[in-house]
């Protein structure tokens, strides 16, 4: 999900996405149109919030997959996740991170908060391999990964009221206006995330695109079950590190906006 502020490479790449909508990646909302599937039946057309970008895993990432994947990468299944079995403990707060990129931030936060369990969802294989490598080097025992569409994971694997927190850091801004419908943080998906939070649980989003930050603020503020912990944008919580990409943007004068909302009691 997360693209750390980088828009799609070009119009040609994005144009092909419309031909593939509904075949592999549902978003939290449909656009009201239909497409005819291989079974000859018309199905609701759904909008994907990411494209599977080309990228090769390094040899080190491949080795991490082989050595650590069997323990730390969980299979997607349309059934509730058994957290105690997956994390080999009970009672720990449960945090979902959607789109962790190359995993640096995830590993940092998991190391800083060893009492919490972190479930990272990411579709891009090099990123999964990079986080597995960090898990082995640190080492970390409180991180698990699902390499699958986050919308389906939330819908089918995470029951209502099961999460203590959700992190969505630097999701793809889909900066062109005609692509705004692909943005992840739309009202239906925010409502879905809110339903999975426990009372008092938090949703923490961050972006370096001001226009997207404004949309996030409007969408999150429009979800009746959530309340803002700040007047508008929140100070960066201590646990969220400043990434290399973010540092580069800050040096160029780009802003970063954090939003932290809590589930009402």
Condensed summary:
This protein is an alpha/beta fold.
Count of spatially separate domains: 1
Uncertain segments: 3-44
What is the mean pLDDT? 84
Number of strands: 9
Q: Which structural category do the helix and sheet elements fall into?
A: alpha/beta
The helix fraction, in percent, is: 25-40%
The CATH topology is given as Rossmann fold
Largest sheet strand order: 5-4-3-6-7-9-8
Shape, please? globular
The CATH architecture designation is 3-Layer(aba) Sandwich
How much strand? 15-25%
Order of helices and strands: HEEHHEHEHEHEHEHEHE
Rg over alpha carbons: 18 Å
Task: Summarize the SSE layout with pairings.
Elements: H1 11-20, E1 30-36, E2 42-46, H2 59-72, H3 83-87, E3 94-98, H4 104-112, E4 117-121, H5 125-137, E5 143-146, H6 150-157, E6 163-169, H7 187-196, E7 197-207, H8 210-221, E8 226-228, H9 244-251, E9 257-263
Parallel strand pairs: 3-4, 3-6, 4-5, 6-7
Antiparallel strand pairs: 1-2, 7-9, 8-9
InterPro entries: SAM-dependent_MTases_sf, tRNA_(Gua-N-7)_MeTrfase_Trmb, tRNA_methyltr_TrmB_bact
Pathway: tRNA modification; N(7)-methylguanine-tRNA biosynthesis
Function: Catalyzes the formation of N(7)-methylguanine at position 46 (m7G46) in tRNA.
List keywords for this structure.
seven-stranded mixed β-sheet; single chain; 34% helix; 265 residues; disordered N terminus; 20% strand; globular; alpha/beta
Structural overview:
One of its GO terms (cellular component) is tRNA methyltransferase complex. It catalyses: guanosine(46) in tRNA + S-adenosyl-L-methionine = N(7)-methylguanosine(46) in tRNA + S-adenosyl-L-homocysteine. GO terms for molecular function: tRNA (guanine(46)-N7)-methyltransferase activity. Residues 3-44 have low confidence and may be disordered. The chain is globular and about 45 Å long. The chain has one domain (73-263): Vaccinia Virus protein VP39 (Rossmann fold, 3-Layer(aba) Sandwich), CATH 3.40.50. It contains nine helices and nine strands. The strands form two sheets. Strands 5-4-3-6-7-9-8 form a seven-stranded mixed sheet, with helices on both faces. The chain has a two-stranded antiparallel sheet with strand order 1-2. It is of the alpha/beta class. Helix 2 (59-72) crosses helix 5 (125-137). It has helices spanning 11-20, 59-72, 83-87, 104-112, 125-137, 150-157, 187-196, 210-221, 244-251; strands at residues 30-36, 42-46, 94-98, 117-121, 143-146, 163-169, 197-207, 226-228, 257-263. The protein starts with 10 loop residues before the first helix and ends with a strand.
